[in-house]
Amino acid sequence: MATAKSVPTKASKARRTRRTGRRDPLAISLLKKDHREVEGWFDEYEQLEDAGEKLALFNQIALALKTHTRLEEEIFYPEERGDVEDDLLDEAYVEHDGAKKLIAEIEAMKPSDDFYDAKVKVLGEYIKHHVKEEEQPGGIFAQAKKGDEDLDAMGERIKVRKSELMAELSPPKAN
């Protein structure tokens, strides 16, 4: 028995076009990818009990956050000044500064120290808040998408700089 072929209607074509038309530009998709990765690692950290595993995962989180904040501070935020509200960008810089200080405190500790886990948890909550402010409707990313910058070209610069920073900030590998 022959079945009727489904013919796309005008409405389904429009929906499909709209969905693909809403793709994030490269700069924003790369930054969001970093956000999801670190959020996952904070969730994973909560499940760990072994001190060595905690230290290794925190070091991974710290490297990712140091790299990400540098990318935003060196490329994304300065180039979005004028397209994104100054207050939002100023707050983002201050939030980065607070996160860097907390990362440094945790790096100076051992997982067996009092408050180590609590500080990692607070850092995770702090980062979650910061991400929300960047990604929410009307937030930094939404305003950036409405601006004049070529966010795909910026994304290419972010990719290159991320590779450089990962090499620069990664601890030397043991032989």
Kindly describe this structure:
The structure is a single chain. The protein has 175 residues and is mostly helical. It has a single domain, classed as nmb1532 protein domain like (Four Helix Bundle (Hemerythrin (Met), subunit A)), CATH 1.20.120.520. Helix content is 75%, strand content 0%. The protein is built from seven helices and no strands. Helix 2 (26-47) packs antiparallel against helix 3, helix 3 runs antiparallel to helix 4 (86-107) and helix 3 runs antiparallel to helix 7 (151-169). It is globular. The termini are far apart.
Helix count, DSSP H or I runs of 4 or more residues: 7
- The fourth-level CATH homologous superfamily is nmb1532 protein domain like
CATH top level? Mainly Alpha
Rg, Å, rounded:
20 Å
Low-pLDDT ranges: 1-21
CATH architecture: Up-down Bundle
How many strands?
0
Average pLDDT for all residues: 89
> Can you summarize the main beta sheet?
none
Q: H/E order of the elements?
A: HHHHHHH
Large-scale geometry: globular
**How many independent structural domains?**
1
What fraction strand? under 5%
TL;DR?
The chain has 175 residues and is mainly alpha-helical.
Q: Which secondary structure elements does this structure contain, and how are they paired or packed?
A:
Elements: H1 10-21, H2 26-47, H3 51-80, H4 86-107, H5 116-135, H6 140-146, H7 151-169
Helix pairs in contact: 2-3, 2-5, 2-7, 3-4, 3-7, 4-5
What key attributes describe this structure?
single chain, 175 residues, mainly alpha, Four Helix Bundle (Hemerythrin (Met), subunit A), 7 helices, globular, disordered N terminus
